[in-house]
Write a structure and sequence with these properties.
It is a single chain. With 340 residues, the chain is an alpha/beta fold. It has two domains: 55 residues, DNA polymerase, domain 1 (Orthogonal Bundle); 274 residues, Aldolase class I (TIM Barrel), CATH 3.20.20.70. 37% of the residues lie in helices and 19% in strands. It has twelve helices and twelve strands. It has a ten-stranded mixed sheet, with helices on one face. Helix 6 links the parallel strand 8 and strand 9. Helix 1 crosses helix 2. The longest helix has 15 residues. Bound molecules: S-adenosyl-L-homocysteine (SAH). The site of S-adenosyl-L-homocysteine has 19 residues, from strand 8 and strand 10.
Length: 340
């Protein structure tokens, strides 16, 4: 078992079961996430006998960093997993800190028409340690702290719910990387039962919903999941989330040229979310070589933005990162596999 997949509570229980004091867990977390050692032997305040037992029960294997691609304010990491699969993470330097976009699955079954990740069907879920190590290794590569984590890489986080929640617990722990819950964002294409489950947990983690269309007809063309959980159900679940948690929600809206960027779409979007404590994040589409969609021109995006503003919708336009390093989800893995 990889030790980076252990929550602090699990590690405390492990020590209790093996008749050791549970504060050892805090010491181990300190070595793993603050001092960032590479081996159990370096944990110098822990007794030899305990170290031997730890070595018997756990490994601390890292992922294999296969490739780093850098552009202005962006670094992209391709990681090899122990079974030879590959996933990627993208680091963005914002003025407010370093934000890492983490993958949650190998491939993705959601099959959104515009998305590169889904070109590879889901092979498997990532284990918690495989997500934790994306963050830890990116921090090491960067030589700086990662302050924000967004679960917007390859995969659908709510299709790997338990491991994702475990991952969040681990990076959120004060004794570990201590990434604040409000600095962590989970993004979902709209798996309604999981939105409901997430609501019940009342976590301080941010929720983002990939909306991309203001009506069922268009949304179903772009996102298969809408045929399973249509807009009405998604919006009802989100309304309930807002009521129970008193938090805000983000709606992500990729701007696809001549597909979902008309004035009518903007007005329909405004009436869909009117009255909710929500904001819309307009995402300039990252064109990929495999998929036919084109990005909406900047002027048109700003026009769409203005319509939403005039209709009293909170709206932002996502800063563009890494189009020069093909930073759209799944693009690096794709190009690596094809030897480009
Ligand atoms: N499955 C989750 C999280 C991964 S995708 C979800 O759907 O939310 C993270 C975000 O990136 C989603 O909003 C997704 O629609 C968007 N995205 C996918 N491909 C993109 C591209 N080529 N350019 C810009 N955004 C993209």
């Amino acid at each position: 078992m990889n030790i980076y997949g252990m929550t602090l509570t699990e590690l405390e229980n492990y020590f209790l079961i093996t008749k050791k004091k549970k504060f050892k867990a805090i010491q181990v977390y300190d070595w793993l996430y603050k001092k960032k050692v590479n081996s159990f032997d370096e944990m110098s305040n822990i007794k030899k006998a305990v170290i031997s037992k730890l070595k018997e029960d756990f490994n601390m294997d890292r992922l294999n960093l296969l490739k780093v691609q850098s552009g202005k304010d962006v670094h992209k990491y391709l990681f090899g997993l122990t079974d030879g699969q590959k996933v990627e993470a993208v680091l963005m330097n914002h003025d407010y800190g370093n934000s890492l976009c983490v993958s949650t699955q190998v491939g993705c079954n959601m099959g959104c028409a515009f998305c590169e990740s889904g070109r590879l069907k889901k092979v498997r879920n990532l284990e918690a340690y495989e997500m934790v190590l994306q963050v830890l290794m990116a921090e090491e590569e960067l030589g700086d702290r990662i302050s924000h984590v967004v679960l917007m890489g390859i995969g659908e986080p709510f299709d790997n719910y338990d491991n994702v929640m475990k991952f969040i617990d681990i990076i959120n722990s004060d004794y570990g990387m201590a990434i604040g819950a409000r600095h962590i964002t989970v993004s979902t294409c709209g798996i309604v039962p999981k939105i409901k489950e997430f609501t019940k947990e009342k976590r301080q983690v941010n929720l983002a919903i990939s909306l991309h269309a203001p009506n069922d007809e268009l949304r179903s063309q772009l996102m298969h999941i809408n045929k399973v959980y249509p807009l009405k159900e998604v919006m009802a679940a989100v309304r309930d989330y807002l009521k129970v948690t008193n938090r805000k929600v983000t709606f992500e809206y990729i701007m696809l040229k001549d597909v979902n960027d008309s004035d009518e779409c903007a007005l329909e979007l405004a009436s869909l979310i009117r009255g909710m404590t929500a904001y819309v994040n307009l995402i300039p589409y990252n064109e990929t070589s495999h998929i036919e969609f084109k990005k909406t021109d900047r002027n048109k995006i700003m026009h769409f933005y203005d319509i939403l503003k005039r209709n009293k919708i909170n709206v932002t336009v996502r800063k563009e990162f890494g189009s020069e390093v093909s930073a759209a989800c799944g693009q690096l893995r794709s190009s690596y596999e094809e030897g480009r």
